[in-house]
């Protein structure tokens, strides 16, 4: 390596990539060492592939699992899952982990939860790591200053067998958000505003780094929310430079380094942020002060608008493909152009998912709900992201606030985000949801999803329609 190459300014992404590159193939792909591998109850086929070839996981101590997609949220009793496929998925994970000596936070474990909530919470996702999981929202873990991305079943097999992975180096894109957020504007609103701006393919082929004073000022929970939805902008991964917020969050977590190891780790992590003059392939900037509480009106996360807006009119759109897409989305969503978003009534509320089910999310929803009641005819749920979050919330009395208002207080899991466990929104019902995807049928066949922040979902729960949460704050 030439001396210039070693001193050239580097992005955080490049630093992590280069430190994990084992070799480069003739076609340009790099073999990366993988520090951490998460598995959940949708990973079974990869273990089957391995078994068929007589292979065993090479580094089980680097792999951690927890069931999330198929777990019941009305209780923790395996016997209550009277659905053979769901039982089989949870049992397969248990068997695969036991056979290979992989640590599993199983259904009855107090550490169980959505894998993207559990990893950071346990201190398993650390700055500078390469992290993979057979799940697109693995980008979440990048909030800690890691390179974290989702992989397919064949790639999972490769990682299990070799603890490494062939990858083509993506391009780098920096999204800077600067300025002060308005009242009740949260991390969820930032990422929805970003996706509304750049589109669902806006970051395709790129690893995103979120930067700027607004991002720096976000809590760890907020950063996890932003990075979670990187994939919804088409990004390969999303990351945020580690800083004192990151270190304070990680200190003392069960699997985080301790004592002298911790000091050494922090000293090393302080060298990870992108160098001053590092060059990104693309740069985007947003003004935080211009972001309002957001909701989606259509069937992709890019179909998002300020809650103060009206349902857009496809007739105003010049591009015929986009116009067609909007027409279909509005037909599915049962919305008429020109309707004020605040006039749209809702039937269901889902506060949960790996995007917005952490303690801070539940606190912000509870602050809106406190002293109010869920509107008549609305069924509202809170599904904590992990059993730890659930316990913490209960110790703070948040469960009592939600239950007194008429919310259902559930056990941890993916639940109504994807409905794979049977928690579903009925056909034609409209759901205010804190999750990350509003695709057709996502929360059940015919279900209509509006994405928003936990505070906005709480506001919808108590009014029975999409509501600008700032109204409830001002009115008291
Ligand atoms: C089931 C899983 C592979 C999937 C993903 O990759 O993200 C799911 O978590 C989702 O959110 O759609
Ligand atoms: S909570 Fe939703 S987005 Fe997250 S991993 Fe589960 S199904 Fe996927």
Characteristic terms for this protein:
single chain; 476 residues; alpha/beta; Aconitase, domain 3; Aconitase, Domain 2; 3 domains; 5-stranded parallel sheet; 17 helices; 33% helix; 16% strand; globular; binds 3-isopropylmalic acid; binds iron/sulfur cluster; Aconitase_4Fe-4S_dom; branched-chain amino acid biosynthesis; Acnase/IPM_dHydase_lsu_aba_1/3; (R)-2-methylmalate dehydratase activity
**Total count of strands:** 19
Which range does the strand content fall in? 15-25%
Mean pLDDT: 97
Bound molecules: 3-isopropylmalic acid, iron/sulfur cluster
Major β-sheet strand ordering: 5-4-3-6-7
Work out the helicity level: 25-40%
Work out the radius of gyration: 22 Å
The top-level CATH class of the largest domain is Alpha Beta
Distance between the termini: 63 Å
Q: What is the count of distinct domains?
A: 3
CATH superfamily of the largest domain: Aconitase, domain 3
* CATH fold topology of the largest domain: Aconitase, domain 3
- CATH architecture of the largest domain, by name, is 2-Layer Sandwich
Label the structural class.
alpha/beta
Query: Which runs of at least 5 residues are low in confidence (pLDDT < 50)?
Result: none
Catalytic activity: (2R,3S)-3-isopropylmalate = (2S)-2-isopropylmalate
Pfam families: Aconitase
Keywords: 4Fe-4S, Amino-acid biosynthesis, Branched-chain amino acid biosynthesis, Iron, Iron-sulfur, Leucine biosynthesis, Lyase, Metal-binding
Function: Catalyzes the isomerization between 2-isopropylmalate and 3-isopropylmalate, via the formation of 2-isopropylmaleate.
């Amino acid at each position: 390596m030439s001396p210039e190459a070693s001193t050239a300014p580097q992005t955080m992404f490049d630093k992590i990539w280069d430190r994990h590159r084992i070799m480069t193939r003739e076609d340009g792909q790099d073999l990366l060492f993988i520090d951490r591998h998460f598995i959940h109850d949708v990973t079974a086929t990869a273990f089957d592939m391995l078994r068929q070839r007589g292979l065993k996981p090479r580094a089980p101590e680097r792999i951690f699992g927890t069931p999330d997609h198929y777990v019941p949220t009305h209780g923790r009793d395996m016997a209550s899952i009277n659905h053979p496929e769901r039982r089989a998925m949870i049992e397969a994970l248990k068997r695969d982990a036991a056979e290979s000596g992989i640590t599993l936070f199983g259904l009855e474990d107090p550490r169980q939860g959505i894998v993207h909530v559990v990893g950071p919470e346990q201190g398993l996702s650390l700055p500078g790591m390469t992290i993979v999981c057979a799940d697109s929202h693995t980008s979440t873990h990048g909030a800690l200053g890691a390179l974290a991305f989702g992989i397919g079943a064949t790639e999972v097999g490769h990682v299990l067998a070799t603890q490494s992975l062939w990858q083509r180096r993506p391009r780098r894109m920096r999204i800077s958000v600067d300025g002060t957020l308005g009242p009740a504007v949260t991390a969820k609103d930032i990422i929805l505003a970003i996706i509304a701006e750049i589109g669902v393919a806006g970051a395709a082929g790129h690893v995103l780094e979120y930067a700027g004073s607004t991002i720096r000022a976000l809590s760890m929970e907020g950063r996890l929310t932003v990075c979670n939805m990187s994939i919804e902008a088409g990004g390969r991964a999303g990351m945020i430079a580690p800083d004192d917020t990151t270190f304070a969050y990680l200190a003392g977590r069960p699997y985080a380094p301790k004592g002298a190891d911790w000091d050494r780790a922090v000293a090393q992590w302080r060298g990870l942020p992108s160098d001053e003059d590092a060059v990104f392939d693309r740069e985007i900037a947003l003004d935080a002060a211009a972001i309002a509480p957001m909701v989606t009106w259509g069937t992709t996360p890019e179909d998002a608008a300020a809650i103060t807006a009206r349902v857009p009119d496809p007739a105003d759109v010049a591009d015929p493909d986009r116009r067609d897409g909007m027409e279909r989305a509005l037909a599915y969503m049962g919305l008429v152009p020109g309707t004020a978003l605040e006039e749209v009534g809702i039937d269901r509320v889902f506060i949960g998912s790996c995007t917005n089910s952490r303690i801070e999310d539940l606190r912000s929803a509870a602050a809106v709900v406190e002293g109010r009641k869920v509107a008549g005819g609305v069924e509202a749920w809170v599904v904590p992201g992990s059993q730890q979050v659930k316990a913490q919330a209960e110790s703070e009395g948040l469960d009592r606030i939600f239950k007194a208002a008429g919310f259902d207080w559930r056990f941890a899991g993916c639940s109504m985000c994807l409905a794979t466990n049977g928690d579903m929104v009925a056909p034609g019902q409209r759901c205010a949801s804190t999750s990350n995807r509003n695709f057709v049928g996502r929360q059940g066949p015919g279900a209509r999803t509006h994405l928003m922040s936990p505070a906005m979902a709480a506001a919808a729960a108590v009014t029975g329609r999409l509501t600008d949460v700032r109204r409830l704050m001002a009115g008291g």
